Amino acid sequence: MFGGRKIMQSSLKKSLYLGLAALSFAGVAAVSTTASAKSYATAGAYTTLKTDATKRNVEATGTNALYTKPGTVKGAKVVASKATMAKLASSKKSADYFRAYGVKTTNRGSVYYRVVSMDGKYRGYVYGGKSDTAFAGGIKSADTTTTATTPTRTTGYYLKDVSKNTLWTAPKNTQYKASKVSLYGVKSTDTFKVDSAATKTREGSLYYHVTDTQNTSVSGWIYAGKGYVAGATTQDLGGLSLTMSDAAATSDNSVKVVYRASGSQVGTATWVTAAAGTKAGATVGTTAVNAAGVKLADFVTNSLPSGYTTTGTVDTASATYGNTVYVDVTAAATSKVQLVADNVDNTASTTDNAVAGVLANGAKLSSSDLSATLKEAGIKALTGTKGEAIGATNLATISGAFDTAEINGSKTYYAANGDAYHYVFTYEPANFANDNRLATYGDTLTASFKAVLTKGAPSASSSNSSWIA
């Protein structure tokens, strides 16, 4: 009897425990459900941004993800994770900028901007701080382009190839939906005027804004390479040129040039006359020029494949339209010049006020020491048949191409009292021919300079240093 009572008490206790556990679980579940429901925010009405669209270019900061809805609203899904947004934030591509075009504010005061990447790949909502009049949080304002210096020459430009080098309403991807400008009716003879310049902030590429002077309704931005450089013998202008582009090559107006080395073709080029009415089979002659004003014989020389030089005189006198001129070439080599300070005057450095790190006789110089110049004829004479002696004539041409005026050095030297000093260099031609008499193409030549230590900071200057060893 007493055993039965113990069993009943045990059962009752178990029932009570189970009941209390069930009640506790139900209570926790109820609390969890309530808490979960309260964890979602609600978003207000969508508002389209009306300010100047070009002022709404933004970039990711990498602190917030991109969502299909404001991120704290129920059902929001990730479009681009925080890690992806961080990559877009440090991107070097303009395509990864964004344009903000709409906004929603949640009941908690959080602002979410509707944005789209410049290439259209990403679109969604990103946290933008607590104000709908400024970008913050996951995005910040971005200057997609940076104003550049307008070239000193603003007129007389041509499109390098009307069929390929197009204009843009804005440099590509620096504005949302930047598009190509129609070039319908634009001719290869049309000249363009430059009125402004800008670089793409992330890529650093230079663009010019140009207008067709024959049809002012045609204007836009075009890639401008390294930009116009006053006084340079060659220009890298991207899609622009300072000469008219050639017409399309036909058998009636062109000559094909084939370059051969040891019987194998190593390059081709096509010369197109600027004259009208020529016919296939007619002799080109010695006075005909292309759109750039270059005769066929000069074109053949100027268009040599990289790394080759002609083996002799090229005969173009009998060339006819529609036919081919064959040019035999051989592997070329280009020498460089080592600048040497062979006559150093350090008188300005005294025992009481010594200048640190001064040059010694025989010191090798580089483009960081001075901006030495070599005329185009000298640079051209540095290239010839690989292994062939450069010879006295070409050495004289190279030596004569040096600027003999004094050159202010580029490097600053400091005295014990903190005063700045620099060297003044002068080319000394006397030893050039003898020092390099045995040199062959591909060898490094030596050019001697006098160097005088002079009080004062150097003046900044630059020049073509591609020929300096």
Indicate the structural class: alpha+beta
Percent of residues in beta strands? Answer: 25-35%
How many domains is the backbone divided into?
4
Number of helices: 6
Q: Quick one: overall form? A: flat
Description:
- There is one protein chain.
- The protein has 469 residues and is α+β, with helices and mostly antiparallel strands.
- The chain folds into 4 domains: 47-141, no CATH class; 144-245, SH3 type barrels; 254-332, no CATH class; 335-455, no CATH class.
- It is 15% helix and 29% strand.
- It contains 6 helices and 25 strands.
- It has helices at 2-38, 82-89, 296-302, 376-381, 391-400, 432-435, and strands at residues 47-48, 57-60, 66-67, 78-80, 98-105, 111-117, 123-127, 139-141, 145-148, 158-159, 192-200, 206-212, 219-223, 240-241, 254-261, 264-272, 308-310, 324-334, 336-345, 363-365, 383-385, 407-408, 413-414, 420-428, 444-455.
- The strands form 5 sheets. Strands 1, 2, 3, 4, 5, 6, 7 and 8 form an 8-stranded antiparallel β-sheet that branches. Strands 19, 20, 22, 23, 24 and 25 form a 6-stranded mixed β-sheet that branches.
- Strand 5 and strand 6 form a beta hairpin.
- The longest helix is centred in the N-terminal third of the chain and has 37 residues, at 2-38.
- The chain is flat.
- The N and C termini lie far apart (113 Å).
- Keywords: Signal.
- Residues 1-37 form the signal peptide.
- This is Surface layer protein A.
